[in-house]
Amino acid sequence: MATMGERRSARRDRTRKRHRITFLGVVGELSITAGVLIFLFLFWQLWFNDLVVRAEQNTAAEELSQSFIDAAQQDPTAAPSDDPVDPTAPPIGTTAGDAQEFGVLTIPRFGDDYNAKIAGGITRTRTLNPIGIGHYMTTQAPGEVGNFAVAGHRTTYGKPLNEIANLRVGDAIVVQTAEGWYTYRFRTLEYVTPTASDVLNPVPQADEVEATDRLITLTSCSPMYSAAERIIAYGVFESFTPITDPAPASLELPEGDG
């Protein structure tokens, strides 16, 4: 038969065990709660919020596109060529200063609901995050001989260049400004280091070479959720459609896509 002291010792042991189990249980519950909150935050930040922002960016770009058309209907004079040697050359598209919107990027391969505004500069806080696509202002303008180079996020903030790696040779890359639509065709994709600024040259990756072609260069981060490299997509100018004309067929989805 247990003595009084033994019974007291047994009660103390049971009490300590209950306290130990309760403490571990609280820690476990807090860990589970923290995990759920982190998951919900990531779900919001990396998926749902991007869907909302992408939809807002698309709507804003469509409105800007329509404003160009509406302005042309009020003043239907087509923009003349800026090339005195070749009057058939496209007019040089309007660009703008830092964080000032001047164009719309449409890439049918990215879906029938894809449009993104283009603004001057590539700062995250002023252009890339709130607007979408930023123009490297040291590069050429749409339709100009040389290299019209732009940047955009591949993840977060509407991720306007999320599908850049899915481009196929010949895909249309269309830039609309107040002058009209400049259609480029995707040519090639490559990966470079973040310091490879020569991709922005008038002739990409060639120094002090006079440009003869009209090019577009899209730049974004790679791999996903990292800035270790840059993914670069090049396109070659194909045609210009004045803003006073119907929108070009190049804005339609690629054949076989729905």
Automatic annotation (TrEMBL):
GO MF assignments: hydrolase activity
Organism of this sequence: Labedella gwakjiensis
Domain of life: Bacteria
Key word Membrane present: yes
Record carries keyword Oxidoreductase: no
Location of region: Disordered: 74-97
Segments traversing the membrane: 21-47
Active site as annotated: 153, 221
InterPro entries given in the database record: Sortase, Sortase_Class_E, Sortase_dom-sf, Sortase_E
Entry keyword set: Hydrolase, Membrane, Transmembrane, Transmembrane helix
UniProt protein name: Class E sortase
CDD domains named in the record: Sortase_E (cd05830)
One Pfam family hit: Sortase
Xref: Gene3D superfamilies: Sortase (2.40.260.10)
Secretion signal span: none
